[in-house]
Structure formats: C-alpha cells, structure tokens
C-alpha cells in the first residue's frame, strides 16, 4: 500500500504516535508525515506511505490554515496550555479594537522566533530536549509568511483567530508574540489545523480508516 493521506489527528497523541499507528495498521515500513502537530493540536496531518513518502517535502511547503484559541493574560513555558503557567496582572484588558490594530504587524513576511520547546536543533539536539533539562537555549528568528489573520471572536481572556500561513510558522509563537505586543501575555489554549494545501479537515480520515482509504485509492475510487 502507498499513498498520501489526510489523517484526522485527535488531541492528545503526538504526530509520531499517529505515524506509528498507521505503520502498524497497514504493515508498511516507510511511513512519514508532513508538518508536525503538537499533542495539544488536532486536525489535518498529511501522512505518506510507501514510495509516496518522497512527496512529503512538497506537502510541507503547502499553505496551511488554522483555528486558534489564544488565552490572554498569562504565559506558559511552552507557549501553549501544556506548559507551566504564569498569570499576569492586567488592570485594563485590551479591546477588540486594540487587537485589530496590531494584527497587521504579523501578516506578510515576518521574522518569528520559534518556541523554546520546539524541534529546532541546537547543537544537533532538539531545543525541547535542552528546555526540559532547564537549559537556556538561544534560538534565532527566521523568516516565515502569514497570509491572513481573522478574528473569529473575542471575550477576554479568550481570543479566537483564523490563521492562514506558509510553511514553518509556529502558531504558539504567534500567540506569544500577540500577547506580548498587547502587554498582557498570551498562549495557545486550543488549536485545530483545518487545511493543508488541497486537503480540508472534512476530507481527513480517522487513523482507523486509513486502510480502507488506501484500498479505495487502489481501486480507483478516492475518498471524498
């Protein structure tokens, strides 16, 4: 069996866990994914099986779309809800107008600093491995592209956004930076990836549905 499959990752397991589960189900040695989703995140995870793993680099370069909930008024060590939280004193919470005024600063080609707890290598070792041991790591900012940011809803301290990005964007970093810019702190409390390229969340299949999806592809009846 081989193919590119949009898998519906649930909240909880790592992207590596999903790859391992697919490998067991289809009995294929070569299985990989394009674009890691953190354990807290859910949504579209593009999986490649067999010779299709050669196409995963191209999948990683495709546009991605997210629905993100940011909790303002606090920061965490991981920039999401899994880290150690520090609450901030915010006498006057930012208004929706305040938020709308600063969002354009994060649209276009921007410099973004990855989270300390990330897979970015420092001395050949992932930054998160250093951070878990309490080591201070210095990560360099990198150029990424954010196509659009739209406010879905805002009721302090919860800010919900729709974000469309190019490759390499950390939504956790975006949440951190928006919170810092507003002077109140912020972190990702919920995250759903709703699209990768042409694959929408409505097209994604649960892990247990992967074998059937592959069989349909082989028979010339791709899932819709």
Folded structure, characterized:
The chain contains six helices and 13 strands. It has about 220 residues and is α+β, with helices and mostly antiparallel strands. A hairpin with a 2-residue loop joins β10 (about 140-155) and β11. It is elongated, with a radius of gyration of 18 Å.
Kindly give the count of domains. Answer: 2
- Basic shape: elongated
Q: What's the CATH superfamily of the largest domain, by name?
A: Pseudouridine synthase
- State the CATH topology of the largest domain: Pseudouridine synthase
Q: Can you summarize this structure?
A:
This protein has 224 residues and is of the alpha+beta class. Helices cover 23% and strands 35% of the residues.
Helices and strands, with pairings:
Elements: E1 3-9, H1 15-26, E2 31-34, E3 42-49, H2 56-60, E4 64-72, E5 74-76, E6 85-87, H3 96-102, E7 108-112, E8 121-122, E9 125-126, H4 127-132, E10 142-155, E11 158-165, H5 171-182, E12 186-196, E13 199-200, H6 210-218
Parallel strand pairs: 3-12
Antiparallel strand pairs: 1-3, 2-3, 4-11, 4-12, 5-6, 7-10, 8-9, 10-11, 12-13
């Amino acid at each position: 069996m081989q193919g590119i499959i949009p898998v519906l990752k649930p909240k909880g397991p790592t992207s590596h866990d999903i790859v391992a589960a697919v490998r067991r189900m289809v009995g294929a040695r070569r299985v990989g994914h394009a674009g890691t989703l953190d354990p807290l995140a859910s949504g579209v995870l593009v999986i490649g099986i067999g010779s299709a793993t050669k196409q995963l680099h191209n999948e990683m370069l495709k546009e991605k779309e997210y629905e993100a909930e940011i909790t303002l008024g606090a920061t965490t060590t991981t920039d999401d809800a899994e880290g150690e939280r520090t609450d901030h004193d915010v006498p006057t919470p930012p208004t929706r107008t305040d938020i709308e005024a600063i969002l354009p600063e994060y649209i276009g080609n921007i410099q973004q600093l990855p989270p300390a707890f990330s897979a970015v290598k420092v001395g050949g070792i992932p930054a998160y491995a250093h951070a878990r041991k309490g080591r201070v790591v210095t990560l360099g900012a990198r150029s990424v592209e954010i196509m659009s940011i739209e406010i879905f809803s805002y009721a302090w301290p919860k800010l919900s956004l729709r974000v469309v990005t190019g490759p390499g964007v950390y939504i956790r970093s975006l949440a951190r930076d928006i919170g810092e810019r507003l002077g109140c702190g912020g972190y990702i409390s919920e995250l759903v990836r709703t699209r990768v390229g042409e694959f929408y969340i409505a097209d994604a299949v649960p892990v247990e549905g992967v074998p059937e999806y592959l069989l349909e592809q082989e028979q010339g009846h791709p899932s819709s």
